[in-house]
Every structure is written in structure tokens, then in C-alpha cells.
Design goal:
Blueprint (H helix, E strand, L loop, with lengths): L6 E7 L9 E8 L4 E9 L8 E7 L7 E11 L4 E12 L11 E11 L7 E10 L4 E12 L2 E14 L2 E9 L8 E12 L6 E8 L4 E3 L1
Length: 216
């Protein structure tokens, strides 16, 4: 995911037992005078039971430099989801200053059934990753796979993965351990930095893949 530092990312977890589509608003307040600087509507895609996704908060360049209190209120009354509320503090930089890019960016990610979903033999996973920081010598790229909202597996695509400064392309095949079964498959890429002893892995980037594979 590309972006800049005018904002933050907030995890949103569905702890219920039904698929929800969170919607609501984000409010930005200047704590110096309690003035509401921004009200922005939010409409998210489906979040499956027991799953977590990320809400990206972007502060538009029209907001002046300063520290702001941000409140987030989400709900899905149609599906009986009581909602999610949280608050945080964000700093908006000078809009005229150049902004540092995210250290790791997933530019293009595709997961496609081969030859097609009706006759799937494997999924072709392709990812173009840009590293804007120092070289990463011992990364792990995994694919989190779910079917009809239920976790199938966390599958390691590449380990170790070296990410020099610049662009790296990864192309791998994926076949579910239990085999392909009827249902809708969804995917998320997870990039971790693995310590040299192999005991600690730190998640440095997550990317929910757009699109699904539906097996008849």
C-alpha cells in the first residue's frame, strides 16, 4: 500500500460471529479550541468473523500543521454489529514539506486461479514490493488464506526473502494444504522481519488482497 505519513492505520477486529461491513465517521478536533476541523464518512468492505482488518486514516493537505485528537465511530446496524469506537492523537506535518514515504509498499498484488476458478490447479501469487529504507536481509512473506471467512492456513511463500532498497518482484504458486474446496477464498499478504536466531518475527507490512477466488 502506498501512502505518506499524513495519517495512521488503526486495526478493526470483528469479534462476532457474522460478516459485517463497518461504516461511520472520523472526526478531527483541534484540542486547543475544541474546534472540529474535519468530519469524514467511512465505509469499509466485509470483515469476516474473527478477522482483523486495517482502517487507514489520511489527513488531507488542507489541514494545517499541528496536533489533533481523532475519534473513530463505526457500526453495522443492519447486521447487528454494536460498533467500534476509539480515539488517538495524530500530528499533521507542514503540508508544504516533502513527506517521507512508507518504508515498505506493496505496489501491485494479484492472486489468480490457474487455469481458472472452475478448474483450479494452483493460484499464481504475484507481488511487487518497494523497500524505501535499508535493505532487509531475512524477511518472510506469507499468505493468509481464508475460505468463507474461516482461516484455512498461513502459508509461507518465501523465506528467507531479501529486500534491497528499491523494487522486488515475487512470483510463487499456492495450493491449499487441504486442497481446493467449494467456497470463496480471500487472501492477505504478511511481510515479517525475522531475527537472526529465528525466534522472533516482527510484522512490518500487511496487505489485504483485492479480489477473491470462488471455487464452484
Amino acid at each position: 500500500m502506498s501512502g505518506d505519513r499524513r495519517g495512521d492505520r488503526v486495526p478493526v477486529e470483528n469479534t462476532g460471529n457474522a460478516i459485517v461491513r463497518p461504516a461511520g465517521e472520523i472526526t478531527l478536533v483541534d484540542p486547543g479550541n475544541d474546534e472540529v476541523v474535519l468530519n469524514a464518512p467511512v465505509a469499509m468492505g466485509s470483515v469476516y468473523p474473527g478477522h482483523e482488518t486495517t482502517l487507514e486514516i489520511a489527513i488531507p493537505p488542507s489541514v494545517p500543521e499541528g496536533v489533533y485528537e481523532v475519534s473513530i465511530a463505526l457500526a453495522d446496524e443492519e447486521r447487528g454489529w454494536d460498533g467500534y469506537e476509539t480515539s488517538l492523537v495524530l500530528t499533521a506535518p507542514d503540508p508544504d514539506e516533502a513527506l517521507a514515504p512508507d518504508p515498505i509498499i506493496f505496489n501491485v498484488v494479484t492472486v489468480e486461479a490457474v487455469p481458472d476458478a472452475a478448474n483450479a490447479q494452483y493460484a499464481d501469487v504475484s507481488a511487487d514490493i518497494t523497500n524505501n529504507g535499508e535493505a532487509v536481509e531475512n524477511a518472510r512473506l506469507s499468505l493468509k488464506v481464508s475460505r468463507d471467512g474461516e482461516l484455512v492456513e498461513d502459508y509461507t511463500l518465501v523465506e528467507p526473502l531479501t529486500l534491497p532498497n528499491g523494487s522486488t518482484t515475487v512470483d510463487q504458486r499456492y495450493i491449499p494444504g487441504p486442497g481446493w474446496k467449494s467456497g470463496e477464498y480471500t487472501f492477505e499478504l504478511i511481510l515479517e522481519n525475522v531475527e537472526s536466531n529465528g525466534d522472533v518475527a516482527v510484522v512490518v507490512a500487511r496487505f489485504p488482497v483485492e479480489g477473491t477466488i470462488t471455487i464452484p
